[in-house]
Write a structure and sequence with these properties.
heterodimer, A: mainly alpha, 4% strand, B: 125 residues, 4 helices, 0% strand, elongated
Chain lengths: 278, 125
């Protein structure tokens, strides 16, 4: 295979990943690394670098649209970004310290968890938790538009949410993913922030988190321009088109198919990691 | 002058991000076209990890490569623009919180900004 063929195939694969990622809301980043390593035989460190770059592109590209809706909360986002960026630096630091097989196994496990999280029905939390005084002092409580007018909300469990965000950041830096699922889990389930606010704020945070580890990856030489080019352009165009189609599409069966793909990739990553083929 | 509200800041930030991404994508695309014309028929090397050459790892190296119209240098410069986009958003937020006189969040945002700069400058720790 020469570079032209390789680049075209990677572009097509990344386009599909971005398209499905936007349609299902799972993000395209999570399948990029398995695709590059399992299908194209790319070294996992190059794959993580390219994936991370595409994550920044989709997060920033979508932000303008989200912002207009008026859901995201920049104070919550900015405060939690302290945790995610520290985590991202730690994750990027780990990439150079642990074996590629071990990274592949962790990746597989995270894929499993994401497939599970996406298949599960969201539970309405019912236990009453008192509002958090820290949230008060940090002016995190806000309001968002609903059909019935502005709805205000209080933020709970700030320290726990902050801790989970550190983990989200570490996974992002270690695996080159956006880890939006963990970020939304932390805000929606733990901090009890309304779902719409959680997802849009999470999208905002993903770009900053990924930029933190991308700096490390760039100076370590993990970001290869020839590889990152088709991945970034493919995922970006795929996700932008996916977001346009989203309004009309039926996503239920798509989520199922995409979930199954993730499951298969998870098994293969763990299997090959254990056999030491990475 | 209009008052600085969170909402207004967010709209400006959203547009800032979009412009950054468009600039980066166009730069990467142009570099990519040149790259494929030049090296499209060459063979591959991604299975073996060597790490990028020093010229693609530092600011000065990438700038030098890009402005001497090295194909991969242009792509890498575009990727650098992309990484700089969220960092620019954080920098803009510091200014915005300053205009709002929100000192707690000036501090919070500055911490995030320092962490990002640390990553870029001392990335090889």
């Amino acid at each position: 295979m020469n570079i032209l063929e390789f680049t075209s195939l990677i572009w097509i694969g990344s386009f599909i990943a971005g398209f499905l990622g936007a349609l299902t809301g799972l993000g395209g980043g999570i399948v990029i690394v398995p695709m590059l390593t399992l299908m194209f035989g790319v070294d996992i460190r190059y794959a993580i670098g390219a994936s991370l770059v595409s994550v920044i592109a989709t997060s920033s590209g979508a932000a303008a649209a989200y912002v207009k809706e008026g859901f995201s909360n920049i104070r919550i986002g900015m405060f939690l970004e302290i945790a995610t960026t520290i985590g991202a630096l730690f994750g990027a630091y780990l990439v150079a310290r642990i074996s590629t097989e071990f990274i592949a196994i962790i990746f597989g496990i995270v894929l499993f968890i994401s497939a599970y999280l996406s298949s599960r029905q969201r539970k309405k939390a019912e236990i009453v938790i008192p509002p958090n005084s820290l949230a008060d002092r940090l002016k995190m409580n806000g309001s968002y538009p609903t059909p019935q007018g502005l709805q205000s909300y209080d933020v709970r469990n700030v320290p726990q949410g902050f801790g989970l965000m550190f983990i989200a950041g570490t996974l992002s830096g270690l695996l080159g993913i956006g880890s939006g699922a963990v970020k939304v889990l932390a805000m929606d389930q733990v901090m009890r922030i309304p779902f719409k606010v959680s997802t849009t704020t999470s999208n905002f945070m993903i770009g900053v988190t990924a930029a933190a580890s991308a700096g490390v990856f760039l100076s370590r030489g993990y970001i290869d321009p020839g590889l990152a080019m088709p991945v970034m352009l493919g995922v970006l165009s795929g996700s932008l088109i996916g977001a346009k189609v989203l309004v009309k599409a039926r996503t239920r069966w798509l989520r199922l198919v995409f979930g199954l793909v993730i499951l298969v990739l998870a098994i293969e990553m763990i299997f090959k990691g254990l056999k030491g083929i990475f | 002058m209009k008052k600085w509200t969170d909402e207004r800041i967010e709209i400006i930030m959203g547009n800032l991000l979009r412009i950054g991404v468009i600039l980066a994508a166009v730069t990467v695309f142009i570099g990519g076209i040149f790259y494929l014309f030049q090296f499209g028929l060459h063979q591959l090397h991604y299975a073996i990890f060597k790490g990028e050459p020093a010229a693609f790892r530092s600011f000065s190296g990438i700038l030098h490569q890009a402005f001497s119209f090295h194909e991969l240098g242009i792509i890498q410069f575009g990727l650098l623009l992309l990484i700089a986009t969220p960092i620019a958003r954080v920098l803009f937020s510091i200014i915005a919180f300053f205009l709002e006189r929100d000192y707690v969040y000036i501090l919070v945002t500055s911490i995030v900004f320092c962490l990002l700069m640390f990553s870029l400058v001392f990335g090889r720790f």
